[in-house]
């Protein structure tokens, strides 16, 4: 594996320890603390990579919840080096850790004996000099509400009344799509690859037919479930189709999914969280799946093209006060 063992960095292939049986099984995240409101401005910091879909969803929430002035951001280089994720310039993580060169420093500062995978994204506490949470599913829920007193932003991506629907979509989209593409890409046996790719396309087909008649996954409101799907869709044709061999169809070949993807990409602020160059460089530099590390020139993608989603009824993002945006 590549990662930390008792606080020491060990070199190795990404995902090596997660593919022991021939199929890819994602390692559980270990820091799962919460921030209780009222949260302080400038105290928490996000460490991300534009390559990573899990990090991408936290970037989208930071943007849409109006947190850019309150949560400083550190962006790793697009590709991992010999010591995992690293930063172009040393990052200031508060008085306990003034110079972060490698992402693993944040882990050992939190637990000097840490053993496990060193992943982005991280929500970091600058004051205490430790990781609050390194599970993006938690981080987006924290950002969804913990800072609302500070920002006055009452957009709610996980409204009470839609939770059953959102949870049901998350239960499909995480294993079959978000993680499904990785199971395809990192499979070490044909059968594991075949199974994963079939599941990816079955899920895409299902979402395509759902979105033919609904604006968003949970209906008229744009929710967390949509952003969790978006981060995989936006990487699909540029990365997963090629380097992870998810190539039965492209997202461009799906009329509803591709229009839906463009609507979400064009949502104010969202395109700034997507860096296709980093995405291509990041995925194509994973030696285990692309030994030459050559980054392809294509495909040509234009997410700014018009979409047709206005034909479907939509109310935008749910607001806690009850009115839609
Ligand atoms: N459960 C984590 C997963 C994050 C994750 O796996 N990130 C990948 C990048 S896409 C990573 O940093 N991997 C490092 C490694 O495997 O060594 C989350 O959603 O926050």
Describe this structure in words.
The chain is α+β, with helices and mostly antiparallel strands. It has 2 domains: 151 residues, Glutaredoxin; 160 residues, Up-down Bundle (Glutathione S-transferase Yfyf (Class Pi), Chain A, domain 2), CATH 1.20.1050.10. 35% of the residues lie in helices and 11% in strands. It is built from 10 helices and 10 strands. The strands form 4 sheets. It has a 4-stranded mixed sheet, sandwiched between helices. β5 and β6 form a beta hairpin. α8 crosses α10. The protein is globular and about 55 Å long. It starts with a strand and ends in a 6-residue tail after the last strand. 43% of the residues are buried. The model has no long low-confidence stretch (mean pLDDT 96). The site of glutathione (GSH) has 17 residues, from α3. This is Glutathione-dependent reductase. InterPro entries: Glutathione-S-Trfase_C-like, Glutathione-S-Trfase_C_sf, Glutathione_S-Trfase, Glutathione_S-Trfase_N, GST_Omega-like_C, GST_Omega/GSH, Thioredoxin-like_sf.
